[in-house]
Q: What sequence folds into this?
């Protein structure tokens, strides 16, 4: 329909403040951190599926996350355009790409920019707010949604309202965007009716493009070139790396919103959280009478107001503490003061500086064909559990320093070994000598699981020579 | 020599207050918790190896721990008699067995009872104290070592001194044993010169036996019968289970020390800790400028006065906390207020009540032939890493519900499969079908390591039929 809103979901973030559950290799927006039924990315997508309000969504994400995005979209049964950023260039470049992508369909398309990692339970209220703000967008304003503050937060920017916007019921001109205040400043801002800036923007594509041209032409030039030379890769549109890399790294807030004269704000009052810290995650989860939110295998003794999140098979216990966050994963554990959980960002920087691989990589590594997970490591061996989704097919490959033993524990494997193809069934094994050319695939209807025992003088991931790969790696 | 002291080391405890590092399946006295060079049991044994003071030691331990005791003794190169308790019957029964065992060698033998889980760095001071107290023991007293208190502890019993003991330099008669006091009581006790009761007793065997006969004859009867019907089992003396089970469960403190008129105490001032809680472990470990004691892969941000102990490969992190204990193991994590770490005992009781296997069993299970460790578990499979010490030999066995794949990753395996014996070398695998009769041994000079992949409808430990076992299981 002509008055549909074009939702564009930005999900390029790495969510390091929710380490160790969220890491570069699987950022928070793709995990079931706050809702076991699905990720916040999936909830965001589902929030914009009502065709009476929204057009087909577009997702802008990091190239590395493309198979996760595709799989999670398939799980919720939603089709979307997927644009791949070769690298992170901050939000101005992403919004420029979004505006150009929408303008290609309709120069006056009304675009809604959304983050993939927010929690908004009341989807109808959100859709109603989008429709109300779209009125301003159609009239040529660049609208934001201003969240009604629930506490004097110091980790959000604020929006001071100006006069009411003529012809846009409930909306105001923006008097000023205010950067993250201190506690006193937050208190004063709330007293005068300022709103939280949650990063939701609605605008006509042509209006945003004109403002980008005026305020940050280099960003727009880079975005235009990146789209012009983009390549289609399976179902993805891969932005041109050389061109996109020319975009200055700047936020849309700084580049346009703080400078434009067209900024408007629609106050909204639905419950919202950016679940940006473990403290915020605790805030949106259900809690027991002692104020504890627990997930997984957890036992507590005299513990209160805490978040205890146990991933995997391990047992996590807490004795005699108040206001703590405990997050355990198969390879890393975080224990933090809840009030200081924002400092997890510093921690991750410290982990990177110390060279800990757990800073960015998860134990379970997702691949287009499924995933693998290291389960044991010795001096001259490594053991992995590998799952291949039905139809999945690894690259044709060989290793110089390790032999591999595969034992199928579920499903059926199709194994190509030096040109010969054979089926390996549950409770059967096959041996792949050093230097042999081999390939693993799942020809069946259920997931294939196998245990891989690697034996050799070196078992690093980089001892791999790929010769064919259906995923274009 | 005639005036040697017979050390008898009691190591039957389970150390649940140091869970999850210490568990029933591997109690704290056998772990390298406080000193990476060895266990407190080994340090205790080494403390009594000076032949000018001590005779060959005797160890009294749980039957389940016998191979750990034997291996740890071999590691430090000390020979000892090893008496196995079929079950725990508290300390009076153990002391009765100790006195009888020593009396069999020399009715007037001077016995020193020691716990296996204490930290005493100053071995010469300890030996000197034992020699000084032995003077009183030879004169017919039942002597204790009274530790000079360093704080008003409420988790130890105290000893109030009476008049000086005639003929025993530095020693006093015991006025009274006082049970664990409250904080105020502890303060008063220390002010009047009372000492900590650390459970060290020195006595002539005949004197203790007479006191046991007088105060708790049922304990002595049970101990006598248990030794009379004991069986030799490899290098162990296994007390008769039926007889030992008749011993009333009571402590030597309650049964004898609080009633006898022969109690004497020698004040000692060497540094001592029973490392009974994580707080106490923190107290004996080296600490950095922030007061933190760390072990393993650990990173801290603005954390102070804490113990962070990471076992295994995992990374453990703490942000913004003071006075906490964090202990991570491959299958269980404890986070506790340091001041309340004594409540870990309650936690373990809670874990048992909830049926968590981690309450008592470690991931790595020690066996007479080496150890095994589960590294992965699925619906119809389980993966283990198995290490067999040189010369080790598992029982001849079969399973009804699972087949097994063994991949040797280090050393050489001798595999017996339905009567046929073959050698399986590093990077070779062998398949053991369901129902096959098989046996694994390490005929080599280095440890044998293999990955076992079990596949079947049931992979529990109890699906095993043993037909031959060199360890008499």
A:
């Amino acid at each position: 329909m002509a008055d549909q809103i074009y939702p564009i979901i930005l999900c390029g973030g790495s969510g390091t403040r929710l380490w160790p559950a969220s890491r570069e290799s699987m950022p928070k927006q793709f995990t079931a951190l706050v809702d076991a039924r699905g990720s916040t990315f999936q909830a965001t997508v589902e929030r914009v599926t009502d065709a009476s309000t929204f057009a087909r969504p577009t997702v802008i994400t990091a190239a590395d996350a493309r198979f996760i995005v595709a799989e999670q979209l398939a799980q919720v049964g939603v089709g979307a355009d997927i644009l791949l950023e070769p690298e992170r260039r901050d939000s101005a470049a992403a919004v420029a790409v979004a505006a150009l992508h929408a303008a290609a369909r309709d120069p006056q398309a009304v675009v809604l920019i959304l983050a993939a990692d927010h929690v908004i339970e009341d989807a109808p209220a959100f859709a109603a707010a989008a429709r109300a703000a779209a009125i301003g967008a159609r009239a040529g304003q660049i609208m934001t949604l201003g969240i009604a503050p629930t506490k004097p937060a110091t980790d959000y920017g604020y929006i001071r309202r100006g006069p009411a916007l003529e012809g846009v019921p409930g909306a105001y001109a923006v008097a000023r965007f205010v950067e993250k205040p201190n506690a006193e400043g937050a208190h004063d801002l709330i007293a005068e009716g300022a709103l939280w800036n949650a990063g939701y923007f609605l605008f006509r594509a042509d209006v945003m493009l004109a403002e980008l041209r005026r305020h940050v032409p280099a960003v727009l030039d880079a975005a235009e070139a990146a789209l012009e030379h983009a390549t289609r890769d399976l179902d993805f549109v891969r932005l041109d790396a050389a061109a996109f890399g020319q975009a200055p790294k700047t936020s849309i807030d700084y580049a346009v919103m703080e400078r434009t004269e067209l900024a408007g704000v629609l106050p909204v009052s639905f419950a919202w959280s950016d679940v940006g810290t473990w403290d915020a995650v605790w805030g949106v989860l259900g809690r027991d009478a002692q104020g504890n939110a627990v997930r997984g295998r957890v036992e507590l003794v005299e513990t209160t107001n805490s978040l205890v999140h146990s991933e995997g098979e391990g047992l996590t216990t807490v004795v005699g503490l108040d206001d703590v966050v405990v997050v355990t994963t198969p390879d890393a554990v975080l224990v933090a003061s809840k009030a200081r959980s924002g400092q997890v960002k510093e921690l991750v920087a410290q982990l990177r500086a110390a060279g800990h691989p757990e800073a960015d990589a998860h134990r379970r590594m997702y691949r287009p064909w499924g995933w693998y997970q290291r389960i044991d490591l010795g001096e001259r061996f490594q053991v992995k559990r590998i799952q291949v989704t039905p139809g999945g097919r690894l690259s044709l490959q060989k290793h110089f320093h390790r032999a591999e033993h595969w034992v199928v524990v579920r499903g059926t494997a199709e194994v190509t070994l030096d040109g010969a193809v054979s089926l390996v069934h549950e409770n059967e094994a096959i041996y792949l000598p050093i230097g042999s050319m081999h390939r693993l695939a799942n020809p069946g209807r259920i997931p294939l699981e196998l245990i891989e025992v690697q034996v050799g003088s070196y078992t690093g991931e980089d001892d791999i020579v790929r010769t064919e790969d259906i995923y274009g790696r």
Summary: The longest helix of chain B spans residues 90-105. The mean pLDDT of chain B is 94. The first strand of chain B starts at residue 5 and ends at 11.
